[in-house]
Amino acid sequence: MTDQIRACVLSTLCCMFAIFQPSATVVHHMRFVEAKQDVEEDAATYSVRYQYRAYSRPQYSWRSEDSVLFPDASIIITDSYNGREGEVILKLLQAQHDQISLWIKEDDVSHTIKFKPHPSSTPRTERSFPEISFHTNLEPVTEYDRHQRSRIAFEADVETPGYEFKYMFWSMVTLNKSEVVLNYGSSLPNFESDSGPLHEVSRPRDHLHQSEYELSTDDLGDGAIITLQVITARKGAPSSPVAQVRETYTFMLHPKSTSGPFTPGSVAILDQPPVVCWAGAPCSITCSAYGNRPVSVELLRANSDGSKEELATAPKAEIKGEGWIDAVFQINQAGEYVCHANSQVKDTETHVRVYKI
Question: Could you say which DSSP state residue 159 is in?
Answer without folding.
Answer: -
